[in-house]
Structures are given as structure tokens and as C-alpha cells.
Design a protein that fits this description.
Number of strands: 20
Shape: globular
Structural class: alpha+beta
Strand content: 25-35%
Number of helices: 15
Strand order of the largest sheet: 15-18-17-16-19-20
Largest sheet: 6 strands, mixed
Helix content: 25-40%
């Protein structure tokens, strides 16, 4: 005999078993009818031992219909992490609301984890903010996140200024700066013509379909018939190709109406249409539709990442120079081959804070080493999306006034990607600096693949006698004088530290 309980009653009984289960949730329920098996998949914010899992299984068996002869459970530990949550928010919106996500960058999602509650803000244009608020997207997103993480969610929007756009015909855009555009495609099989004999079998990923005349394919997830005010019938079709979803309207044609009417949920189609703009929002119109079979062996390709631009546009490198009282480069000596045989870019950044998704870069300083000697420097202040508080200003010496006219990181990143192209990256406590660069580069469709050397890790290995391995401690040991907590000064100091550490390594 099984007990009929609501979802909330069932979860309440599970949570009552042990204080460790106070935040446990059901992620999904899997049913295998042919095996009469049901599996309850739970998520929890702490690890659950075997004995407690058995007690959870007992509660699950109590409420399960006797038609199921096998009852199983899984409990997966999921900890609410602001970066994981931001990634899932971006993925969900890109899949379910492509017309919103097209104006949303990963850096436009700001999360705050406060106890068991996660508050997040989506920085959108005015139209995007109104859309997600009025159509219930935030509510659906909250429900989705609650199934993925052991927290409660509260979302809101913040209006951001629309980004400036320029014509590709403008004299300001040089041909050498135009990036390759790769169209990822799906080749369907067994095309059955309904509307168009010339459509072919090649479709664009829905994920990549953002504007213009396109051909897409996928499984119909929803289809309904409506009429215009003038009585003309049309269909609303929702399509999923596993890379993304889209929906649009199809105005029926007399000669193919009976064939289109036979389409049902689960059928696969290839369709030609047009993405346009209706009342400020993206809309899709299906113009031609054919039946087809979706390839069973389809594997999604990774999205193309832009290569470094050929020319600098905003931040131009300068000849390298020393800004310290003493420099090791004045000495006539043979440098380690490890230093002279490769090109390095030693860099440092200043930020408004330590947390990746709630902080911005305020300064980048970098020095390029060729044959073991500094040849170029790259330095710029950056206007962050976050305020510079008083404590941060005291630490870095960078104020709101200093960055008010500085370029945004989105403008700086292409030039920095060109500067580091083909070089080994070097930083002190590199994990921190590199993760910020990768994060903001990724937001602009760049991928940082450079090899990385951490001078802090080198110092710990080859100078274990030091009381700590902070940059200023190591600098004091080698007699290097510099102005700490400005990016370029720290980069030059790190150049000298790297040189001294590689000398020590070469002697070991």
C-alpha cells in the first residue's frame, strides 16, 4: 500500500529525517516502465552517508505505487556557487530565451549567495528587462535554478545602456580587423519535400541563428493553429535542434496546407525562414518547410572563438622602460636559456574586488620579454562596471575620477589578446589574474590558451626559507624597489623576480 502525498509533504518528511537534509530537493524522477523501475534523484548541499541514504530510500518506497517493483535513489552534493549559478543562468536563457540572451553577456549576470538564498541581477537593455519581467521568465528561471541548486532564488533586472554599434561599411572598420564567422551546421537525412524542392539538407545551428534569412532544423516540441483577424490560418511552431530552441509563425499555403496539417509534436523538419524585428523584439517567420530525419550521430561542435586581431585599435604598446630604482638588467651576465629561448608576457591587473562575478578590472599592466629582455609594455586604466570603494582606492591608488574616461574592458580585451599572442603568460599568484582575463576575454568570444607560469609557485619551490611568498617579500629579498599595487609596476617587479627565480632553478 503506497501513500499519496504532495511533493511538499514528501520533501518535508525527508527533511525531518536528519538536520543534514534541511536543504535537500528533488532534481528529477526517472521512470523505466519496461523494468517497472523508478529512480528519485535528489540534490543536497552536504554529503549524505550510506545509512541516511537508506532511510531516504525507505521514505521513497512508502509513497511509490506498488506497480514499481524497483525503487532507487541518488543523492548528489551540489553547493551553491556564484560562478556555477551565473553559468547556468546564462545557459538557460540562451536556450529558452534566445531573443533576450543575444543582448546578455556572462558579465551581465551578478550573483550574491547569502546563506540559503541566492539573489541575482540581470543587466539588460530596457526592452530585454521588460520582456523577462512581463512574460514570467524570471519565475521560470527561479524554478529551474531551484531544481539545480540547494538554494532559494530571487532575480531582478537592471537597465544597462545599449552598446554602440557601427556599420561594417564605416571607414573606422578596417578589413584586417574583421573576424572570421564560422557557421556551424547540421546535415539532415531523408528529406521529404512539402514546400521547397531546392531547400537542401543543410541547416544552421539554432544557437547561431540570430538574424537574416536562415535555414534551421529540429524536432517539433509544440505546434498550434491560429487565425489572423482576417480569418487566415497560421501555425505557431516550436523547434529544438539540441543546440537551442526557437519558435515562429508559418502562414499556411493552399497547395500544401493538408501536408502541413499532418505535422505533430515529435516530427522533425527543416525550415527556411527569416529572423526579423517586431515591436523591438526578435521574431522568426517560417517561409518553407520540409520533413526530414535528424542525424542520430549528431555531435555539437564547440563555438568558434575569435583569433587575436591583426592590428591594435585602442591600446597601443610602448617601448619598455624601467620604473624602479634598481634593475638587474644593468648587469652583464648570461641569462638562463629558459628565459631567452621563449617569448613571455609578464602581467598584473588591479580589480575592484576579489570575487570574479562581482568585480571589475581597473588596470592592466604587462611587459613583453624577448631574448630575456623587456621590449614592449602594455598599460591602461579600465573603467569597471562596479564602483571603486574607499578601501580599494587606498589599496591600489586608483579612484573613480581616474577611470571615468578610461575604456571598458570589452574594448581593451582585443588589444590585450594581440599583445599576448604566442607568448607564455607570467603573473604572481597567476590563478587570480588569469581567471579574470579568461572571464572577460570569454565574454568577448576570445579564448586564452597561453601557457602560464606562476612566480609565486616558483618561489615556494625554490625559496622555501622565506617567511612568505608575497611579491613584496620576494622583491625585498632580491633588493628590488618598486611601487606596489599599480599594475605596471607590479609587472616590472615580477619580470625581475622571474629572472632571479629562473637563475636559481638553473643552478639546482
Amino acid at each position: 500500500m503506497f501513500t499519496v502525498k504532495s511533493h511538499s509533504e514528501f520533501i518535508a518528511d525527508i527533511r525531518a529525517l536528519d538536520v543534514k537534509l534541511k536543504n535537500i530537493r528533488i532534481n528529477s524522477i526517472e521512470i523505466e516502465r519496461e523494468k517497472s523501475k523508478i529512480r528519485y534523484n535528489f540534490i543536497c548541499d552536504v554529503a549524505i552517508d550510506e545509512d541516511l541514504q537508506k532511510r531516504i530510500l525507505g521514505e521513497a518506497e512508502k509513497i511509490t505505487n506498488s506497480a514499481f517493483t524497483q525503487v532507487e535513489i541518488t543523492v548528489k552534493k551540489i553547493v551553491s556557487n556564484d560562478q556555477l549559478i551565473s553559468t547556468e543562468i546564462y545557459r538557460y536563457l540562451a536556450e529558452k530565451y534566445p531573443s533576450v540572451s543575444i543582448f546578455l553577456k556572462p558579465t551581465d549576470i551578478i550573483c550574491s549567495v547569502i546563506g540559503n538564498v541566492v539573489k541575482y541581477v540581470l543587466r539588460l537593455t530596457k526592452d530585454g528587462a521588460e520582456y523577462v519581467t512581463k512574460n514570467g521568465a524570471l519565475t521560470k528561471l527561479n524554478e529551474h535554478l531551484a531544481k539545480c541548486f540547494c538554494s532559494d532564488f530571487a532575480g531582478s533586472t537592471e537597465i544597462k545602456e545599449a552598446e554602440e554599434s557601427i556599420s561594417l561599411l564605416s571607414d573606422e572598420v578596417y578589413e584586417s580587423e574583421l573576424q572570421k564567422i564560422e557557421h556551424r551546421t547540421i546535415r539532415v537525412k531523408d528529406v521529404i519535400v512539402i514546400d521547397d524542392y531546392n531547400m537542401g539538407d543543410l541547416a544552421l545551428y539554432i544557437e547561431d541563428a540570430t538574424a537574416g534569412d536562415i535555414t534551421v532544423c529540429g524536432k517539433i516540441t509544440e505546434i498550434s493553429e491560429r487565425e489572423t483577424k482576417n480569418g487566415k490560418p497560421f501555425l505557431i511552431i516550436h523547434l529544438d535542434d539540441t543546440t537551442g530552441t526557437t519558435s515562429g509563425v508559418y502562414f499556411s499555403k493552399k497547395n500544401t496546407y493538408h501536408k502541413i496539417k499532418e505535422l505533430v509534436v515529435g516530427d522533425t523538419i527543416i525550415a527556411r525562414g527569416k529572423i526579423g524585428d517586431y515591436n523591438g523584439r526578435r521574431s522568426f517567420t517560417f517561409e518553407k518547410i520540409n520533413r526530414c530525419t535528424f542525424p542520430a550521430d549528431f555531435v555539437k561542435k564547440d563555438k568558434y572563438k575569435k583569433s587575436a586581431p591583426k592590428n591594435y585599435k585602442t591600446i597601443f604598446p610602448e617601448p619598455a622602460k624601467t620604473i624602479k630604482v634598481k634593475t638587474v638588467f644593468d648587469a652583464e651576465e648570461v641569462l638562463p636559456s629558459e628565459l631567452t629561448d621563449k617569448v613571455y608576457v609578464v602581467f598584473d591587473i588591479e580589480t575592484t574586488g576579489l570575487e570574479l562575478t562581482r568585480s571589475g578590472i581597473t588596470e592592466i599592466g604587462a611587459v613583453k620579454l624577448v631574448n630575456g629582455k623587456p621590449t614592449e609594455q602594455f598599460t591602461t586604466l579600465v573603467k569597471p562596471d562596479y564602483r571603486i570603494d574607499e578601501e580599494n582606492e587606498k589599496l591600489t591608488g586608483i579612484s573613480e575620477e581616474m577611470v571615468k574616461d578610461a575604456p571598458k574592458i570589452s574594448t581593451v580585451i582585443p588589444d590585450f589578446m594581440k599583445f599576448i599572442e604566442g607568448a607564455i603568460l607570467v603573473a604572481h599568484n597567476a590563478e587570480f589574474d588569469v581567471k579574470f582575463i579568461k572571464y572577460f576575454a570569454g565574454a568577448e568570444d576570445y579564448e586564452v590558451k597561453n601557457e602560464v607560469i606562476d612566480t609565486m609557485a616558483l618561489a615556494r619551490k625554490y625559496m622555501p626559507q622565506l617567511k612568505n611568498h608575497k611579491l613584496n617579500t620576494i622583491a625585498d629579498y632580491f633588493g628590488i624597489v618598486f611601487h606596489h599595487h599599480r599594475a605596471l609596476a607590479d609587472a616590472y617587479c615580477t619580470v625581475e623576480v622571474l629572472t632571479e627565480l629562473l637563475k636559481i632553478k638553473n643552478k639546482v
